[in-house]
Specification:
This protein is of the alpha/beta class. It has one domain (5-215): Alpha/Beta hydrolase fold, catalytic domain (Rossmann fold, 3-Layer(aba) Sandwich). It is 28% helix and 21% strand. The protein has five helices and nine strands; from the N terminus they run ββαβββαβαββαβα. The strands form two sheets. A seven-stranded mixed sheet has the order 1-3-2-6-7-8-9, sandwiched between helices. A two-stranded antiparallel ribbon has the order 4-5.
Length: 219
């Protein structure tokens, strides 16, 4: 795996955020969001932005691009790439383990993901063997939602989910369905939707910042 992009907001980070990009992007995609979050100087975090492997993506005509798993179709009844999803979840698990080896407790490690990265973030966070700091899932959907019911062990896991009201890639009902699946699994995500397409907007970034500070407010 290509080394991830790493940004530290202080000399001695007390928490880590592993943030997965969307289809066709790379770990640099969300790098600019770190200063835009305007986190207080007192909150020292390590942001880790991994790169998905390059592989053919069926829905894009088999074109090779960075992807966490193959996508055959966005239809509700489309057959998901189970093997690809599991492989990327295992990769994310290894990044979490690497942070614990650096001395960051699991309950100070937060998993985030946008779009396709959000799929991996949700599946990984909900079946974590020990509590994580939180889950941030943006403009995403949820193949294999039926597998979540048996996973969650930590009903108090902080979860923030958001979606664009005018998303042409993953229409809002797909995000709502993902939120409802997380609720059905036993969690209660904070949910917001914004007048935007498939991306992020300034108000969303401000809301994420406030939420992150609430997650890490025990310092």
């Amino acid at each position: 795996m290509t080394d991830p992009v790493v940004i530290e907001t202080g000399s001695e980070p007390t928490g880590s955020i592993i943030w997965l990009h969307g289809l066709g992007a790379d770990g640099h995609d969300f790098e600019p969001i770190v200063p835009e979050l305007r986190l207080p100087d007192s909150l020292s975090l390590r942001f880790i932005f991994p790169h998905a492997p390059v592989q053919p993506v069926t829905i894009n005509g088999g074109m090779a691009m960075r992807a966490w798993f193959d996508i055959l179709d966005f239809a509700v009844d489309a057959v998901p790439d189970v093997e690809g999803i599991e492989a990327s979840c295992a990769m994310l698990d290894s990044l979490v383990a690497a942070e614990t080896e650096r001395g960051v407790p699991r309950d100070r490690i937060l998993i985030a993901g946008f779009s396709q990265g959000g799929v991996i973030a949700i599946h990984t966070a909900l079946r974590s063997p020990e509590p994580l700091a939180g889950l941030l899932a943006l403009s995403t959907w949820l193949p294999l939602a039926d597998r979540l019911a048996g996973y969650p062990k930590h009903a108090d896991l902080p979860v923030f989910m958001a979606h664009g009201q005018f998303d042409p890639v993953l229409p809002l009902p797909m995000g709502v369905a993902a939120r409802d699946a997380v609720r059905k699994a036993g969690l209660e995500p904070a949910w917001l939707d914004y007048p935007m397409a498939h991306g992020v907007c300034p108000q969303e970034i401000a809301d994420i910042s406030r939420w992150l500070q609430s997650v890490y407010d025990d310092e």
